[in-house]
What does this fold into?
Amino acid sequence: MHGLGPGLRKLTEADWATICGKMAAHDGWAASKAGASVEKLGIARVRAILAGNGKETLTALVAKDKALEAESASIASVDKLLHYVRDLHLLCENFVNFRDFYDGGEPATFQAGTLFLDQRSCTLCMPVEDAGKHGAMAGLAGTYIAYLDCFRKATGEKLNIMAAFTDGDSDNLMVGRNGLFYDRKGRDYDATITKIIDNPISIRQAFWSPYKKLVRLIDETVAKRAAAKEAEANARLAKAAEMAANADKALKAQAAAKPEEPKKIDVGAVAAMGVAFGAIGTALATVAGYLGGMLKLPFWQVCIALVAILLFISGPSMLIAWLKLRKRNLGPILDANGWAVNAKAKINVPFGTSLTGVAKLPPGAQAAQVADKFAERPVTWPRKVMVIVAICFIYSLANQFGFAPKWESGKGVVIPALSGGSAPAAPAVLDGTNAPAAK
It folds into this structure.
C-alpha cells in the first residue's frame, strides 16, 4: 500500500491512524474552502445572483411579514374559534352527553356502520384493533357482543369490528356465520363472526334457555352414543372379517387349547345391579306418586302447579337476565376502544331494541301467497291444545267456586243461581217441565 511500504497485505489500527493523519491536511483545506455550499450552482449562476438585488428583495419581504405578525396571530385565533363553533357542539353531543347516540336520529361519531346478519340489522358497531384485548373490558358491559372480520373484495380492504345484538335471540349466532357490513360511506364488506361474548339479550330468551340447553345436551349425548355405537359396530365388523380370513388358524388353535372352565357368578355384581334397579324403581315410584297426587287435584290447580314448576326452572335464568339487562352499559365498550368515559351510558331494554332491527313485514303488508307443492302442512295442534286447556281451566275454576253449570241425569242442565239473602236460592232447572207458560 502506498505510503506504508510495498507488499503490505494487512491493515492494522496503527496503519489506519497513519493514513488518517496524512489526510488531515486535505480535510482542513476542504473545510475552510469558501463557497462550498453553493459550489454545485456553478460559477455563472453564483455571479448572476451576486450581481442582482435578490438579497434586498428577500429582506424586504421578511420585514413586511414581520410587520403583519400580530394580524397573522389574530387570523389563527379566528380560525381556531371557527373550528370551535363548528365542532365543539358536535364534540359535546358525542363525547359528553351522547345525545346523538340516544336521540335515535343520525348515528353517533363512534358508530362505524350497520351489520346485517341473521335477519337483523345492528347499528351499534365499532372498529376494534385487538378483539382479545377489547373483549377483556367490553365483557363488563353486559351486552351480547360479536366480533367480526370484514373484507372488501373490490379493494382488498380489511376491517375488524364489534357488533352489539340487543334484540332477538342468540340461537343462530355462532362463530363462522357470515353477514354483510356497510360502513358510514356506504361501502359493503363481507363479515364473518370470529368471537362471541355471551350475555342475555331478552327475558324471553332467558325463559326458554334452560329447556334449549336440555334439548341441546340430549342431542349431543345421543350423537356421541350413536357415534360410539357405530365405531363399536365397525370394530366388530372388522374383527369378524379378520376371523373369517383366518378361520383355519383359529380352528387349529381352538383344537389345541384346553376347554375353559365355566365362569362363576359374581355375587358383588348381582348385588350392585339389585341396588341400581331398586334406586331406579324408587325414583319412578316417587315421580308416579307426585303425578298421582297432582291428578287428584282440580284441573285449575294442576295448571297452576305446572306454571309454578316452569317458573321454578326458568326463574333463575330470568332473574339473572333481568339484572344484567338493567346493568347494560356502553361505557366499558368505549373504554375498551381507548375512551375515558366518566359517566354511565346505560342501554335499557326499550332503547336496546332500537339498536337492533329484527326483520318483519311493514304494518298492513302481507307475504305473497306462492303455491308450493312441496310445502309442509301447517301444524295446528299446539294451538288447539292450548285452547282446550284454557277452556278446561276456566270451567274447572268456575266449578270450584260454584259458577259452572252441571248436568244431572233426568233434570237437564242445572245452573246455580246466586241470591243476596242468607240462604241460597233453589237452583233453576232447565228441562222443559218447569218452564214458564207462554201468555
